[in-house]
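Field guide to reading this record: the first block holds the primary sequence, the second block holds the structure written as discrete tokens, and the final block holds curator observations. Each block starts with its own label. This record concerns V-type proton ATPase subunit a, catalogued under organism Blattamonas nauphoetae.

BLOCK 1 — SEQUENCE
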Amino acid sequence: MSMFKDTSGEMINLFRSEEMEYMQFVLPRDSAYHSTHELGTLGMVHFIDLNPHIHPSRREFYPEIRRCDELQRILRFFRVQLVWNDITPLEHTEHSRYNLSDLETKFTDAEVSLQQLQSNNSQLLQNKNELIEMRNVLELAAPYFSGSKVSELRQAYSEQAQLRDTDVRLGFVSGVIQLSKYEQFSRMIYVATRGNVFLDTIPIAEPVYDPTLGKSVEKTVFVAFFSGERALTKITRISESYNAAIYPFSENEEERAEVLNQIRERLVVLQEVEDKATSQKLMILKDIAENLESWTDFICRERALFHTLNMFSSDTTSKCLVGEGWVPTRSVNAVNDCLQRASISSSSSVPSIAQSLNWEGKKRRGDKLVPPTYIRRNKFTSAVQSLVNSYGIASYGEVNPGLLSLVTFPFLFAVMYGDIGHGMILLLTGLFFIMIEKKVGKGMNDLISYLYVGRYLLLVMGAMAIYTGLLYNETFSFSLNFFGSGYKCVVDEITGESTCVHKHTYIIGMDPIWRSCFNNLIMTNSLKMKMSIIIGVLHMLIGIAFSCVNHIHFKHWIDVWCEFIPQMLLMLSLFGYMCFLIIYKWMSPQEVKPMIIRTMINMFLSFSSPIPPDEQLIPHQAGIQRFLLLVIVITIPWMLIPKPCIEIYQHRKEMKKIQAKQEQYKALQDGEEGYQGTSMMVEEEDAQGMAEWTVADEEFNLGEVLINTLIECIEFVLGAISNTASYLRLWALSLAHGQLGEVFLEYCMVKASQLAGPIGIALGVTVWIGATIAILCAMEGLSAFLHCLRLHWVELQNKFYKAEGYPFEPLSFATAFEEEDLAGFDQMQNEIGKREAVREQA
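BLOCK 2 — STRUCTURE
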């Protein structure tokens, strides 16, 4: 029975929502914090905002919320720093308590220190990068000045200058540019100087870190020889536009050697400074990693607590905070115990008070008070309940479809997916996730996380698929003879034809001999199609029965007599009769059996005509069909006429009572003689009730009532037909699943082995396994899942499920931390992705 208990060990009520109490909390200011903290730890109070008209920034505890928001921002900054430095935060095992002011000081100091270290590190990297580039320039460009290259260039320029009778001196610049930009850079210089520049390049052996890009890139040293100041200006501007750095270069070899030694010494000093800064940064981050999760938990709890306190209002003396909210009835005693513990721990002289209020028929700020819907969950029921809630949240007191769906959802899935082998794969997959559930962390992608959440549903779906596969006698599209065929076949030696004699019924499911029969597909189609109709009608009848349970619970007796009874009679008279004919035809020993579809058509078209003997399926068929058709005809006006008439009558009767009350109320105000002995005191609640009664006349709209009744009647009648036809998808998908499996089996195994021998067998088996897992298990499984979901949302739940409620969302520190933890995990995953991308590029 543990599958019907929640995490706290209490029994789960899956049939409808937990009963709720509307409670008022009066908390003294000196113990309000402790009381709310205890209630948040319990997680069983859904608070209502008593200050919806006040802007959040003007509420009492808004400054504390802003402080928590700022601390959460700093925690996110810490998390990013930990990711980029490959440090994993330690998991917290208990809820620690801190002082918010102390945390603010500590967080601010740590953030300032990390930002200062980060800024210094950026400047340090930039200086280091410049020194490395300058060192490469001095080392790689030196051969141009140590040999005869520069002398030859100057001699050539001098000869040209003598010919032109001008005084031209040869200049040069050297620098570093990104290798990928060098080609465009050289072309631009060639065009700008009209080819009067000698430009050469020497690639740097190792990548150089570029602070502007945040990664290491390949760079090259360039040397440009030119003549004239204009050429120098053009080269300088072009270098700036391509982010090329120009460094000074001395032609004197001794000066270059001295500068190179100075650069190497500075690089050593910078490396020591960088190591010390990194060590200091890691020390701060390791201290943060030890407490990050604990701090996050505390800040989430504090923020949720102050957000809840902002929903409270102050009493007239401003000494107490007054809050209201919904509490499950079975948790009222636990709430009172929490308040008592809070009063003791806070040493408050005034105890906290929690009292139940009558909520039925009450309104708050014009809105009717309606309890939230709370259905307890556990690991087994969570997946199915989530599917139901995706359609809509059940109204308070409404029947929860999740209880029925725990059984019908896996079963309808298995009807479409019936195969022992494929069901075994699903069952083992669900069992695998169940076995590793204690070891699984949060590092799962979306697809795996969906399978993990639905692991118990996957287990039951696999078990059901094995059961229906046993009924269909299909194992990876094979038909296995588990219990021995019930037919004995004899082959005629002359004609070669086989004659089969039925000896006994196969123990369970289809007899394997049908797989070798020529009419196998015809028989299988007929069986699955009729079975789908029977299952669909039963499914919808359960939904209509649940609507009666809802009507009785809410005391809507008109709906019981004017909706449930005619709807049930219509379904039973039409589709119930058809299901009876299907079962009777299976069990009757007639050799020539009339078609059921023709029988149902003639039921409407040949109402007064006698039924021919060869088309009669059951005794007294004509009389039964006339009676059922008469019932069908009566149910339609039954759904249309009585309900609006009764509602009009009840409204007029209520209005007469209201009119009498209003006359009495007016007489009390005017002081008429007939009421001299009556008290002249009129309570405020009565006056409010009179105003509501006056509005009741305006809310009742006869035309709207008639139109709604007409729409509901037409929707049900047409929906009964279309919904029944929709269940034929059970037959269609089951047929498609079986036939697709046979196609893969024939082409991948049989024909491959015939064409290529052992190699073909190995290749065919590989392809067959891949197709079985990818197509038959994954794609076909997803298709059957979605069709099953549609059958529950549309065909079942529209019979009784209004889904007009809202969820029970209590103040719970566990939920608040989980949400922040998931957000932090997503942020860490994004930062890890960015970090890995940068490292790959580097």
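BLOCK 3 — OBSERVATIONS
Residues 751 and 813 are 62 Å apart (CA to CA).
The first helix runs from residue 29 to 42.
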